[in-house]
């Protein structure tokens, strides 16, 4: 879902939409998949939200709608992850391991 949302509208869209409820888990997954730069980019975006991270979509939206342009751009900075070949290889590897990748 992350890749689909980010490719469509950037990191901002991923977090703003309901899929963003899983953002903290995504950062953990990126760490487990040995993608430290990508995990850091996700964690950097999440740093603009209170702790605990708001899982409720409307709460996240209320927070984001108050962001100034600079903050909004900072949250969106992790959009590069979706263009990174390392994330695609990691997804492909896990999809093959789980039997989801076409043979």
Task: Kindly summarize this structure in a few lines.
This protein has 6 helices and no strands.
Question: Could you explain the architecture of this structure?
Answer:
The protein has 103 residues and is mostly helical. It has one domain. 63% of the residues lie in helices and 0% in strands. It has helices spanning 2-16, 23-32, 36-46, 57-64, 69-76, 85-97. The radius of gyration is 14 Å and the shape is elongated.
Mean pLDDT: 94
Structural class: mainly alpha
Largest beta-sheet characterization: none
What is the helix tally? 6
Secondary-structure element string: HHHHHH
Number of domains: 1
Shape: elongated
Offer a few descriptive terms:
103 residues, mainly alpha, elongated
Secondary-structure topology with pairs:
Blueprint (H helix, E strand, L loop, with lengths): L1 H15 L6 H10 L3 H11 L10 H8 L4 H8 L8 H13 L6
């Amino acid at each position: 879902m992350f890749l689909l949302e980010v490719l469509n509208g950037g990191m901002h869209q991923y977090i703003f939409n309901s899929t963003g409820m899983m953002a903290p888990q995504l950062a953990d997954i990126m760490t487990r998949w040995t993608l430290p730069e990508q995990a850091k980019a996700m964690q950097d975006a999440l740093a603009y939200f209170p702790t605990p991270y708001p899982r409720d979509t409307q709460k996240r939206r209320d927070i984001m709608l108050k962001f100034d342009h600079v903050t909004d751009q900072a949250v969106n900075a992790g959009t590069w992850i979706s263009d990174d070949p390392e994330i695609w290889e990691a997804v492909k590897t896990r999809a093959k391991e789980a039997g989801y990748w076409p043979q």
